[in-house]
Amino acid sequence: MADMNHWERIEAALAGQATDRAPVALWRHFPDDDLDPLKLAEHSVRWQRRWECDLVKFMPSGMYGVEDWGTQTAFKGTPNGARESTRPGVNSVDDWRRLQRLDARQGSYGRQNEALALTTRELGGSVPVLQTVFSPLTTARKLSSERLFADMRLAPDAVEHALQVITDVTIDFALQALEAGAHGVFLATQLASYRLTTAAEYERFGRKYDLQILDALKGKARFNMLHMHGDDIMFDMLSQYPVEMLNWHDRLTTPNLREASQRFKGLLVGGLSEHGTLMQGTHADIEAEVREALEQTGGRRLMIGPGCVLPIRVTDDRLEAVMRGARSAA
Predict the structure, then answer these.
(1) Domains of the chain by residue range
(2) Nearest Cα residue to 88 out of 143, 140, 141
(3) pLDDT tens sequence across 272-321
(4) Among 228, 107, 100, 255, which residue's Cα sits nearest to residue 173?
(5) Euclidean distance between CA atoms 83 and 63, whole angstroms
(6) Residue 223: strand, helix, or coil
(7) How do strand 84-87 and strand 72-74 relate by DSSP bridges?
């Protein structure tokens, strides 16, 4: 089969057609540098040119969506490079009621799309780019830490007010990302897990607002990916979302790729155990894991990727093994 470019490979995989090799997407944080738009863009372009991924999952700081509402954050050396909250922006029920709409072109939100625009300009449309967007309920948890769970049960109206404000700002941000050159969004939800919420709670406080974002992007984005974070995820509920791609910790929680391929007809993204085989296995183990993932789906409708963000200490030789596995399975 003739070599495909990134767009051809992704579009063929989405359609369930054969590809010249398995498509691959790899993403990681760039801690502290991700606070500076120019540095983040430079890292993003360098990463893409080094690995020639078939999709760029843009990697702003995971806390960008709460800093303009008062949450203080810091990078404290987490293995995945994520920043953490050092002081929540919401500390009482009344704080939810006081939450006001932000201008997403300014502040921390604005810096992320500034960095994105610099990146897409440099890449020149050669590869699909997705801006990272967090579900409103995920943003609410980052704003308030664990008090969210009590507040949404004891003061649901106050939390719902805040969730609508967050949703409106998230929609503004997502649409501005498209203006900045993104081809869609990577919508990450971290609370659609039975360990954290019930299905009824996620329907009320999660799904309702997630779908507002996706509805606002309808007809404007080329494609979107949904990331379902954590264990015991609500796969059946979320796999009904109007997205083209799904990503979750398929090596750690159900369903596996084989099962998911029967329940979702878009493109699955996964197959790598980013903290397991990728970091602890041999190069041969990594290549074998990639091939086994493709075998689960018959080599169709799968893009090789991590279940979540790569560890920042992952070495080039291990990522090269991922790429060899993707090529050898062609």
Answers:
(1) 6-270
(2) 143
(3) 999 999 999 999 999 999 999 999 999 999 999 999 999 999 999 999 99
(4) 107
(5) 6
(6) coil
(7) antiparallel
DSSP tag of 193: B
185, two tokens = 């969004």
Cα–Cα distance, 92 to 263 (Å, whole number):
41
Which residue type occupies 48? Q
3-state secondary structure 120-134: HHHHCCCCCEEEEEE
Two tokens, residue 308: 């979540």
pLDDT recorded at residue 1 = 84
Ranges of the chain whose pLDDT falls below 70? 330
pTM for the model: 0.98
Length reported for the chain: 330
Residue with tokens 């329907």, as numbered in its chain: 203
Q: Report DSSP letters for 68-111, one per residue.
A: TTT-EEE----TT---EEEE-S--SHHHHHH-----TTSHHHHH
R_g of the chain computed on alpha carbons? 19
Is residue 304 within 8 A of residue 293, CB to CB? The reply is yes
Closest to 58 (Cα-Cα) out of 200, 195, 225:
225
- The topology (CATH level 3) of 6-270 is TIM Barrel (3.20.20)
